[in-house]
Amino acid sequence: MQRNIIYILLFILFCQCTSTIRKDIKWIAITDIYEEFGINSYDIEFEEFYFVDENTLILSGFKGIGTPSRTGIIFISKDLGKTYHKIEFVNENIYFISVTKDYCLIETEKTDNQRNAYLLNNSNLNYEKIGEYDGAIFSYGAFNGKILECISYDISKFTDIETHKIYNIPENWQHKKYRLHSDNTLYYVENKNLYTYNLLTQKEEVKVLSQNYDVLSVKNDDIFLVKFNFLKDKATLYNLEEREIYTESEEDIEHYKYKDFICHYKSSTPHIVLNYSFDKGNHWYSYEADNFFAASRPIAYYKDRYIVLKGGVYRNSEKEKGGGRIMVGEFVK
Fold first, then answer.
1. What is the CB-side half-sphere exposure of residue 154 using CA atoms within 13 A?
2. Choosing a second label site near 258 at 20 to 30 A (CA), which of 164, 192, 219, 302?
3. What digits encode the pLDDT tens for the residues 180-200?
4. Hey, what's the torsion of the CAs at 176, 181, 187, 192, to 10 degrees?
């Protein structure tokens, strides 16, 4: 009898330790961007959201759903979604955006392989065309906000976007799966070696590693060594000191991770659910919306602080107008 009581108490304690605590999300901005700019919500589709920094975010999409001629469009907010600035690229689809702290590289496509490239200054929101090219023979590659990779006929060179100085790389670095970091250094891993090449100093270094890694990955300006387990569809990430950070599996695709923070976003009718943890899943918090729903994408996070998503507010009365909103929320600890 006494043993059964102990088991019951242990079970209750376990449930308490692993239970999810209900939490609110602090909604910083719920903006009717369609009404603000006079856009029909059925005529625009958002494709990607980006956080530039803790105050600046970018929404990317296009106008002209169901028409042969589309207009690429981006909205930029420098106050966490309270107000927006709009830029349109008439008769051009947005092909790719590379987001950095100071500048954004925006590539658009007019016809098959005919592309334009624009450089957006995140500070003053001015932008200029920096190139017009045929995607079959030329493309832009890595970009860190200062140095831009230019690939012509499969040969890479790098240029400073402000001084226009050209940086060549050694022939043995061509075609390597390198990553360009914000410190203007190229990194790649091969055969238990970590190779680095600084574009400004032209200094090359090699660090011997304790084991083989498959690729390098850069997330939030952090560099990771990645080792795949193809049998289990898993990837383990290590820092440059080879300390294991975390393992991702195919089931984790829907989980956003930043250091010890994990968030799982679930879109469902009639509301959304956000489950998040600040300590790698030891303690969970849960938020369920009761007055709006949201699409499954696009969605973006800023570290362990903010989330931006496209939501829809229910119309609760004649005075309260329903419809689409761009919503920026803060995770509450």
1. 2
2. 192
3. 999 999 999 999 999 999 999
4. -130
Q: Provide the pLDDT for residue 21.
A: 81
- What is the radius of gyration, based on Cα positions, of the chain? 23
Residue 5's φ and ψ, nearest 5 degrees, are -65, -40
The Cα 70–Cα 64 span in angstroms is 5
Closest residue by Cα to residue 104 from 48, 66, 157, 154: 48
Q: Which residues contact 299 (CB under 8 A, 6 or more apart)?
A: 49, 265, 307, 308, 309, 310
* Residue 256 contacts residue 284 (beta carbons within 8 Å): no
What type of residue is 173?
W
Which residue ranges form the domains of the chain, and what is each CATH number?
19-331 (2.130.10)
Residue pair 213/189 in contact (Cβ under 8 Å)? The answer is: yes
Picking from 114, 119, 6, 99, the residue whose alpha carbon sits closest to that of residue 53 is 99
Task: Examine the pLDDT at 245 and tell me if it is beyond 70.
Answer: yes
Structure tokens, 253: 């695709």
CB 286 within 8 Å of CB 19: no
Does a cis peptide bond (omega within 30 degrees of 0) precede residue 170?
Answer: no
In this structure, which amino acid lies at residue 293? Answer: F
Answer for the pair 219, 210: CB distance below 8 angstroms, yes or no: no
Query: For residue 132, what are the β-bridge partners?
Result: 116
| Cβ–Cβ < 8 Å for 237, 250 | no
Give the pLDDT band of residue 270 (cuts 50, 70, 90).
low
